[in-house]
């Protein structure tokens, strides 16, 4: 079982996930970041690098979970907590189930691909052999702003390109 | 769109996935194997190496998809077919959605963790932005036998160990 976190700790770790999300944004990736925590320390970090590596599996959560497994030399992260800026997709929800992470904190909901409340909830489905405690909406405004400003910028650049070509 | 496969081709590629599953068994891993195919050629292969690397994300499908993405320099595998010996879990079903693979063939159902028919069906759920055509039961007996004999052996060894310790 993971250590109980204070509200200050939760905010601190979500700020670290947001820091990772900004690292994704810097390199032109959709800004999503994640950290995995154990005993009050970050044991895994990751940000979305799908476009850079051209690999569909390289979401923030997968990279953070892989780093955490390496850090504790175990595929079982039964004492860990995962913080991610956006609601996990089916792949990342599945990675949370597979690594037995018992606590998940996320910022914004993802109505199009999220499977921790938006399109069903894989993490609380008792048909699987693992369930996680979930808390959503942590530093919601910052997570949302980061994504919205990123996509606003993408649309602006696309329009600009179109105009310069027309 | 992927090329249409003949029944002979489907069997050939599932045999390759079974070959990968046996590679997992040789090193003591649960025998699950996968290949990703494009234009009638294998562009990605993988077998479960969770225990060896102690990484919860290293399922056969994830490794095969990563290799396939690298082979075609794209995270979008829109012309690919995936063959796997066991029904994909939520993580691997999600990786199939994320990589836009339009055709999936699998051998045995996994009633405890499969999400392509057993516990819902993530690959045909129209709430996601991608669906895949699915064919199950391909070389079913061989896929099942491989898994069942593996777990029989695990139980036998466990009993033997217990007896030698008692």
TrEMBL record, chains A, B:
InterPro entries found in the cross-reference section: APOBEC/CMP_deaminase_Zn-bd (IPR016192), CMP_dCMP_dom (IPR002125), Cytidine_deaminase-like (IPR016193), tRNA_aden_deaminase (IPR028883)
EC number: 3.5.4.33
UniProtKB keywords: Hydrolase, Metal-binding, tRNA processing, Zinc
PROSITE patterns for this protein: CYT_DCMP_DEAMINASES_1, CYT_DCMP_DEAMINASES_2
A Pfam family annotated for this UniProt entry: dCMP_cyt_deam_1
Domain CMP/dCMP-type deaminase: 8-117
Cofactor note: Binds 1 zinc ion per subunit.
Catalytic activity line of the entry: adenosine(34) in tRNA + H2O + H(+) = inosine(34) in tRNA + NH4(+)
Domain of life: Bacteria
Keyword Protein biosynthesis in record: no
Signal sequence coordinates: none
Any one Gene Ontology BP term: tRNA wobble adenosine to inosine editing
Gene Ontology MF terms: tRNA-specific adenosine-34 deaminase activity; zinc ion binding
Root EC class: hydrolase
Binding site for Zn(2+): 59, 89, 92
Family of the protein in this entry: Belongs to the cytidine and deoxycytidylate deaminase family. ADAT2 subfamily.
Oligomer and partners: Homodimer.
Protein purpose: Catalyzes the deamination of adenosine to inosine at the wobble position 34 of tRNA(Arg2).
UniProt-recorded name of the protein: tRNA-specific adenosine deaminase
Organism: Dellaglioa algida DSM 15638
């Amino acid at each position: 079982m993971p250590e109980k976190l204070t509200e200050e700790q939760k905010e601190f770790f979500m700020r670290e996930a947001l820091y990772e999300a900004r690292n994704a944004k810097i390199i032109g990736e959709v800004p999503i970041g994640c950290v995995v925590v154990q005993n009050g320390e970050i044991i895994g970090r990751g940000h979305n690098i799908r476009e850079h590596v051209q690999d569909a599996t390289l979401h923030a959560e997968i990279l953070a979970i892989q780093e955490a497994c390496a850090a504790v030399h175990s595929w079982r992260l039964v004492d860990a907590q995962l913080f991610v800026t956006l609601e996990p997709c089916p792949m990342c929800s599945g990675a949370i189930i597979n690594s037995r992470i018992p606590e998940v904190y996320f910022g914004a909901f993802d109505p199009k691909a999220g499977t921790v409340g938006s399109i069903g909830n894989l993490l609380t489905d008792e048909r699987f052999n693992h369930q996680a405690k979930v808390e959503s909406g942590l530093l919601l405004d910052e997570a949302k702003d980061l994504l919205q400003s990123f996509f606003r910028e993408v649309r602006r650049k696309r329009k600009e390109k179109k105009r310069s070509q027309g």
